[in-house]
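Subject: Sanity check before I submit

Could someone independently write out the structure tokens for this chain? I want to compare against mine line by line before I put it in a report. The sequence has 248 residues.
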Amino acid sequence: MSRHIHVIGIGAGDPDHVTVQAIEALNDTQVFFAMDKGEAKSDLIALRREICTRFIREPGYRFVELPDPKRASEGDYREAVADWHAERTTIWAQAIATELGPDGVGAFLAWGDPSLYDSTLRILDAISKQAAVEFTYDVIAGITAVQALTARHRIPLNDVGEPVLITTGRQLRRHGLSGSAVVMLDADCTFAICPADTRIWWGAYLGTDDELLVAGTVGEVGARIAALRSQARQRHGWIMDTYLLRAP
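---
Independent answer below. Compare away.
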């Protein structure tokens, strides 16, 4: 036997997004590792605790909160991300080695799905390659923000027979829009660079009591989205939003 880690996708914010497979993995876990992102984002850890309380049949688990290193906001983006991941790798490796017994089962609860703009799998892979601590891991798929967004707006993701790009605000600004694109990790309302008749379906805090939804054209609702986003971020101290664009 060796240490084992579950990487569990927990959906976009609604505890009802948690799958039966995820519930079984939750009940198999002794130690949950969570990143402490500061007081402003403490409700992200609170939701993870709520999910465990709701679905774990025989509580005997514990949470280990790990300090999340700051990512540099200046300089080369990829270098900043690489340095940030390296710091996380060191912290996580030490925590797995010291907080989880030689045959223990731990878990990281990933917001949305671990495969989509989430660093958990990359960091666990880096720890494994360093061989600083031996463990195996598996991945439990979760509901993504993309799925939650299209469901809440009651729209198909793609036009008939057409592809969809999943990208970031940085890449949208660099390459522009062609066809349909889901945009994530956009702190700058980059949709504003698109033609006014571009269709947009926007959502923030998807699946939570604070959910915000707006749809229309960039010309009609772009300013409203920017204002709502600014107000919500100021009120909560953080925001997670996603939007679908469709070129005219």
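---
OP: Matches mine. For the report I'm noting this point. The beta strands are 3-9, 31-36, 62-67, 105-110, 135-140, 164-168, 180-184, 199-204, 212-217, 241-246.
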